[in-house]
Amino acid sequence: QGQLVESGGGLVQAGGSLRLSCAASGNVRVHNGIAWFRQPFGKEREGVATISTADGRTHYADSVKGRFTISRDSAANTVYLQMNGLNPEDTAMYYCAAPAIVIPMSLPANKALSANPDIYKYWGQGTQVTVSS
Known about the structure:
The chain is mainly beta. The chain has one helix and eleven strands.
């Protein structure tokens, strides 16, 4: 089995920054690809950013492009989400998710950013991000 543990959430003022971490263990290897999703209270879960296997191709939701950056430390088996220029619309529970096998480099953005259980098998418990205005 595999496990994902998110950390780094908190309360921040608009315009501020946070860095989320997703530590993987067990048979989950971040080099195979990881995605970040978020779910605002009462709304559906949405894809935020993904990083694929191999060359680490990234995809971002339009709402976070230019503000968020996903990266990974394969040696530490950890993925990060650097979030800058936060605004109240970014308030949500943030989750990381790992595939059953890999996120291929060729996977289109719309599929990589979808919470498709055929792609993502492992999910963390989430970390809350709250942005005050």
